[in-house]
Amino acid sequence: MEDVLRVLGVSRTFGPQVALADVSFDVRPGRMTGFIGANGAGKTTAMRIILGVLAPDTGRVELGGRPLTLPMRARFGYMPEERGLYPKMKIAEQLVYLGRVHGLTAATARRRTAELLDRFHLAERSDDLLQTLSLGNQQRVQVAAALVHDPTLLVLDEPFSGLDPLAMDAMGDHLRERAGAGVPVLFSSHQLELVERLCDDVVIIHDGQVVAAGEASGLRAESAGHRIRVRVEPETGGSPDPAAILTGVRGATLHSQQGEVMVIDLADDADDQAVLAAAQRHGTVREFAPVVPTLAEIFREVVR
Amino acid sequence: MSAGAAGTAEQRLSAGTAVRVVAGREITVKLRDKAFIGSTIFLLLIVTAATVLPVLLSQQTPRVRVAVQGPAAEQVIELAAELGRDAQVAEDSTPPQVALLGVGGLPGADISSVDVEPGVQIERLLRDEDVSAALVGDSLTDLRMIGLQSVSSELEVLVRAAASELAVAQTAADAGLSAQEVAALTQPAPLTVDLLDARPEGSMPPELLVLIFAFLFYISVLTFGMAIAQSVVEEKQSRVVELLVAGMPVRWLLAGKVVGNTLMAVGQVVVIVGAGVLGATIAGQGQLVRQVVGASGWFVLFFVLGFIMLACLWAVAGSLASRVEDLNSTTVVMQVLVIVPFFAAIFAMEPGPVQEALSYIPFTAPLLMPARIVLGTVEAWEPYVAAGVVLLTAVAFVALGAKLYAGSVLHTSGRLKAAQAWRGAG
Fold it and tell me: Residues of CATH 3.40.50.300 domain(s) within chain A?
């Protein structure tokens, strides 16, 4: 079960429009992978291709080194972006039905449904029609639908959209728990702080191309070093004068300044030690540290 | 559930199971659908009424109370009452339709009479609804029947018969004929009718039987075809189809829908025809029952083939729409494909080359080939050939339907044209 899902060189066009161009990334077991990208970047298309709902023009998807087959895909759990359940069907019945569609026996499907409804505090609503539930509860049923067949991989398109903060926490816990059980979890979201908090790995997609992929902390560390935060107490008192410090330091520009604190961007060939020396000539350096960017900052940077 | 190898084995979905599960849902949804239950009950009532009511009506002997004034009138009514009684006795052994005209073609009736003195206002009696008719007359030559708005036809026939019998008897007696001669005149030997190719008495005309089956087919294909289209577009509109297609191939999903709705359509027809047969059995129309059961074999076979032939195309009509509101426009072609053959079949009810040709065209064959079997205008091999034609067309349409359905069912934004669905599938 501990298999890596591997998307390999997948391309897909819709008419003249290129939705995905040579997209490759991994979703590792036991980890949460956040899938970020602007609207129309190709997230949903990529997810649909993983699920086999769409076929790629070229490229392939593998799980544990084997190309995906229908029985393998039938064991994936999927939550489409536009929620998909029968509005006029009782919630327990539709979970049992979806479980059976994914290959559970009737008895197992019923047992799993009862367990999930119990966990999501929906047991007493079992016989209610989906359309009579609040949006938050409908969303929970949707999650239950993705989990009912005990999936070997979870692909969730915007699972957090439309949830209140408490429901978001609960959803995050569920996903973490699934990942903890060794299931690879891939989910897309526009809430980058949330992705940063929850995810081990990140895939950033832009205009149908993967622009960054890998461990979230690694990505952030990699982007670090291009920006430093310097706090200087000038000998003359007051605020430091960035122009005086940075003149003559190659590749260093001021990003922002707040009192004694300056945030300085460094070009690739810039020497941070030259900045330090210049600052020391100007006054007492109290703080000198690389700025680790947030995911949101990295995202804005790479998709610019 | 223990995740791992055991789970994988258990979770392998076979095509058979998938189709059964999808079909099961279609059936459950249908069985809870109030419109479906309502229409089934309505059809049941119609069929029951059509088989049982005529029998009940024909078995009811009309009762009439007649005011009588004058000696001739008295005499005539007496004889008419006797004829009416005799006609009823004869009824039991005759089938209902024929029994309406009892012995010698006379209707049964219970006639009672009230003698009215001369001078009493007969109009008053009629208006008070004391009597339903009056017969006035001192001699047979000036008999007058008076009614309010109408006179019961049974009474009129019986009175006429009685009056003429008496008149003949009187004239004959005046002419000096013997009693036997008088009897020969008034009660001539009944005409015997010999039919060379007799249709069993008590059966319905085959044209009517054909019409009933054609109508059932038409109603079923239209309602269940629409149900398939609706079920498809519902899944499309609610996006649930994405979840389903992630779990099973599109073709299995389509097969499940078609199987489920075909079972329901055939089931409904069987229930309705069964109710009719049961009603007819209870009403004592054994002959009619044998006729219907004998004909229904071919009807049901052609019904199933004809339904499946169109079912996948109905699914395509559903998948070309993206919202329920679009269904009206995407199903127009299908409605035409059902309605036109239905009327063509009705207009081609007369045996002839047109009927023969239409009984081999896939769309009209399900209606007209069984019709020709019932009408008795087919060679033994003909139904098999027509069934083969329909079957082959069904296979072609199922393949076409599956391709178009696969090409359009995941396209959720806006209406599609069939050509786009074809390209989408490619």
Answer: 5-215
